[in-house]
Amino acid sequence: MVATIANGRVVSLAGDKDHPYTNGFICRKMRRYPERCYSEERIRYPAIRTGEKGKGEFRRIDWNEALGLLVAKLSEAKQKYGGESILPYAYAGNMGAVNRFAGFPFFNRLGTSRLDQTICTAAAGAGWAQHCGDLQGCPPENAADSDLIVAWGINIRVSNIHFWQYVATARKNGGRLLVIDPYNNATAQSADIYQPVKPAGDAALALGIIKSMLELDLVDLDLLKEKSDGSEVLIAYLRETEWPQFENESGVSVKRIAELARLLAGSAKTFIRIGVGMSRNSRGAMAVRAVTSLGASLGLFSGGKGRGVLFTSGAFKGDKKKLTYPSLALKKTRLVNMIQLGHALTALEPPVKALFVYNANPLSANPDGTTVRKGLAREDLFTVVHEQVLTPTALYADLLLPATTFLENRDVYTSYGHFFMGVAGPVIEPVGEAWSNFDLFQKLARKMGFNDPPFLQSCEERIEDFLQGMEGVPAGTDIPEILSGKIICSSGGCVDNSIAMQNGGRFHFVSKKTDPPSIARLSSAGEYEDPDLLSRFPFRLITPPHADLLNSTFGEQFPDEIGELLIHPEDAGDYSIDDGEEVVIENFRGRTIRRARLTTDTQRGLLVAEGIFWQTVGEATGINDLTSQKLTDLGGGATFHESLVSLVKL
Ligand SMILES: Nc1nc2c(c(=O)[nH]1)N[C@H]1C(S)=C(S)[C@@H](COP(=O)(O)OP(=O)(O)OC[C@H]3O[C@@H](n4cnc5c(=O)[nH]c(N)nc54)[C@H](O)[C@@H]3O)O[C@H]1N2
Ligand SMILES: Nc1nc2c(c(=O)[nH]1)N[C@H]1C(S)=C(S)[C@@H](COP(=O)(O)OP(=O)(O)OC[C@H]3O[C@@H](n4cnc5c(=O)[nH]c(N)nc54)[C@H](O)[C@@H]3O)O[C@H]1N2
Ligand SMILES: [Mo]
Fold this sequence. Notes:
The chain has 650 residues and is α/β, with parallel strands linked by helices. The protein has four domains: 1-31, no CATH class; 42-120 and 333-489, Rossmann fold (3-Layer(aba) Sandwich), CATH 3.40.50; 123-311, Dimethylsulfoxide Reductase, domain 2 (3-Layer(aba) Sandwich); 526-649, Barwin-like endoglucanases. Helix 10 crosses helix 14 (254-266) and helix 10 runs parallel beside helix 15 (284-297). The longest helix has 19 residues, at 63-81. It is globular. 54% of the residues are buried. The model has no long low-confidence stretch (mean pLDDT 95). The protein binds ligand MGD (2 copies) and molybdenum atom.
């Protein structure tokens, strides 16, 4: 990104024309970052709570007092209840490698509970790892040469806008875009073919397509033998499993599945872009396993122009220990899955007594917000929130600390879905008394009396150390060049996986990991299949991103917005709900209010809530009040797209 500065202030933010991936373009929500940077909502000074928890009444203090209070409170919790009574909670507010993990060395040294950061790609990543081994995702650029791009569980036009340029190029040359999604999202609306699927029905659909390809003799069995192993196990399973199961679970007829099989196998150059959307349910990792198995059955991992499978790229692999320093811990403390924060704050024994939130807004973005809120309201919980703006979580802070934006601190940004990396910022002085995550934890560590070498590093030193020996950095690249801002393209971005294959990399249809089931197969669903819940909460709810929000970030720009709920007109008719009317959605976890939008873009029985609006006006709840702490089949991920709910007219 390029920031334009006037009189020490950022006046605009744009894409970098010299960046090969963004080509000068950034999305509209990020263009509004300068607004957030200087907004009224910006937290400028440390402050302590003066009112009731959640009311957001604070009194300004200085950093010295704040650090003193932190040392006192954390030491007290540790002494009285043990280090594990302290829980850090952080995710991806700042996506720089150093700032993202900045608290880890400190909390390791202090001996607190550890956080398992599973909220985003854990399930899909675990699914990918089952069969793909060393095989990498294909660089997105290769999609530009495809005849058929499949956007599967991803809303490219909203959540991965930079991929669209390759779709556009491919289509200009006669290629087509197929979107597979439970609702007719913005990408599907611009696609050549939209294929609806039942939520959590992807494994059934992908496996059904392979079964159909086998029946139609469209699988190159010799190629499979050469490039992969274990295909015979999957083939035997698919041949013996009856068709109705695939149809029922995917919601796609056998006839339509055969058409999709012909379409995919008939295209010489197919590129499958896998989104995390398909992984946010009880069999989400299985969905990714099935779709990668389909990719392998089509020979897409051996590559070639326009052919490939992409999930995240994993393009640069640095040694995470150089950021987190687990070696500073005296013993392995308990690991808390972040998805179960609600449980951790209300039921975990021994209890959490101090919560340190940075780089995250769990009250809005974490599942089961109802229980998270209950936990945050506990009088005996000391909550620290290091934030840029007064988020719903920050309203519950006992101690509020001001954080920099990426415009105010330096970091190294690796890739998510592409193959570039770079070091950036700062371009302005910190606003108010904001500190970066890195500065906060370095200063806090020293105030605590920790003098271990990681706490004496500067940010530049930590970045440099992390870059040393990083996998994916092309041979001969000068580290100082990266530090001074050069954009690096990964050497691992091999279009055809030939390097991995030369090194014995193959697609394993039978997973080498120990957990059964060893092949991608039909598996049981979670909440969506529970007859007891279905009889009381008849609607399925999915909660994908909104174009104007980044997870819950930018919520402050929409203070009055409660967000829409897409309802099929016939469902709305059953409840006499009109377009634009406010409706309550509720289940046994909680409730929230959204504005009805009647549209056939969604299926009957399926409600879609795009965006985690803050909903601070009126009833202070959010969409995650309805989602579950239940974990995915692998990876311990979140089941954000798997809630049963009922609709109530207000
Ligand atoms: N229902 C539902 N929930 C979801 C999702 C979904 O699809 N549906 N998506 C999930 C996904 S994919 C993810 S990744 C998670 C993300 O969950 P979070 O990481 O909690 O992401 P955000 O909601 O964007 O909140 C990040 C916060 O960090 C703050 N921040 C930004 N930079 C910094 C910094 O440098 N320092 C500090 N201290 N703070 C900073 C921002 O102001 C913001 O409030 O949300 C998940 N939640
Ligand atoms: N504008 C915007 N962009 C974002 C974000 C944002 O909040 N706003 N968040 C960023 C982050 S942190 C992430 S991780 C990515 C996530 O971006 P994506 O990979 O796109 O994942 P999701 O947004 O969870 O869902 C994408 C699509 O999956 C669909 N889906 C839900 N359930 C199923 C299912 O069972 N099967 C199938 N086939 N599809 C299903 C949803 O309807 C949605 O259209 O986006 C990033 N980009
Ligand atoms: Mo994410």
